[in-house]
Write a structure and sequence with these properties.
CATH topology of the largest domain: Trna Endonuclease, Chain: A, domain 1
Oligomer: single chain
CATH architecture of the largest domain: 3-Layer(aba) Sandwich
Order of helices and strands: HHEHHEHEEHEEEHEHEH
Radius of gyration: 22 Å
CATH class of the largest domain: Alpha Beta
Structural class: alpha+beta
Strand order of the largest sheet: 1-5-6-7-8-9
Number of helices: 9
Number of strands: 9
Number of domains: 2
Largest sheet: 6 strands, mixed
Strand content: 15-25%
Length: 302
């Protein structure tokens, strides 16, 4: 009973502290990353997911409070689970072999709204590319993402298919696959290095001026904030905004990432140099992130 009473008092004190902080914190206040938040557990619980009976793990809480310290009100988010779903595995395959499947992927995107049949000629393509495409489409058909699929081999080399237009399938091919790919790469890389992957995705926030926004993914690695955004299609209208946000968050290039599908590796590097962020072509992201994690952990422990 005494323990329960003490926990209740502590909860009430945290709530009072949160109210006082909201009154004293000025709008538009952004601070630099603190490398060691020794009193992190004493910071009031975030508003998002407050109804959950289970307290938020301190690894996730660090991310929420890092955003709060930068003047943002976190309205909603989703914790990234440790396991891998069928969607995750499909996304990982697409991201790793995108240059091979890109031709068919474009036809899928074009027919998402109509659900019409599409036909693609694979004649003249390298056998490796044809194998990746046909294996991928066979998998999509078996999982009912493609409602119909047929490939005619030599001498025709014609692929004919039709998408299954369910909301989940449309969301996946519109761009959800790239977000899942990024998450899966980050999870697997961190596990290989012995780190717990504390991540939150689909983070909805409110800025100090009242505007609302949403972020793809945040990661807590050794009490440092990492930010990831991905675009499977047009990206030109977003790059400048992301660069300004990275500066506002005081996030260096090494901890702010943009992953793009419709770009060449060389152009991605040029964009990164121009906007001072880590811009990556989708297939290059696994090696880039692995390199950054290795350098970061060596630097942070030296």
């Amino acid at each position: 009973m005494e323990r329960e009473l003490l926990e209740q008092i502590l909860t009430e004190l945290r709530a009072i502290r949160a109210i006082l902080e909201e009154k004293t914190e000025g709008k538009g206040r952004f601070v630099k990353e603190e490398k060691n938040l020794s009193n992190l557990a004493s910071i009031p619980r975030p508003e998002a997911n407050e109804s959950s009976e289970k307290p938020l793990d301190i690894g996730y809480e660090f991310i929420i409070n890092s955003l709060k310290m930068r003047g943002l009100k976190v309205k909603d988010y989703t914790l990234v689970e440790n396991g891998s779903s069928t969607w995750d595995k499909l996304a990982l395959f697409m991201g790793k072999h995108f240059r091979h499947i890109k031709l068919v992927y474009k036809h899928i995107k074009k027919t998402l709204s109509s659900g019409e049949f599409f036909t693609v000629s694979l004649k003249g393509l390298p056998q490796e590319t044809i194998s990746y495409i046909t294996n991928w489409c066979t998998e999509l058909h078996q999982l009912a993402l493609l409602e119909e699929y047929k490939y005619s081999k030599s001498p025709y080399f014609l692929l004919r298919a039709r998408i299954n237009r369910t909301p989940e399938v449309i969301n996946f091919f519109t761009g959800g696959w790239l977000e899942l790919f990024v998450i899966e790469v980050v999870k697997r890389t961190l596990r290989e290095k012995g780190f717990s992957p504390y991540m939150i995705r689909n983070v909805k926030v409110e800025y100090p001026n009242g505007d609302e926004g949403e972020f793809d993914l945040f990661l807590n690695l050794k009490s440092n904030l990492f930010w990831f955004e991905s675009k499977a299609g047009e990206y030109q209208s977003h790059i400048s905004k992301y660069s300004k946000i990275a500066k506002m968050f005081s996030l260096p290039k090494e901890r702010s990432f943009i992953i793009l599908a419709e770009i060449t590796p060389d152009k991605a590097k040029d964009l990164g140099n121009l906007y001072n962020m880590s811009v990556s072509y989708v297939e290059d992201f696994p090696s880039l992130f692995k390199e950054r994690v290795e350098k970061f952990t060596i630097y942070s422990t030296s």
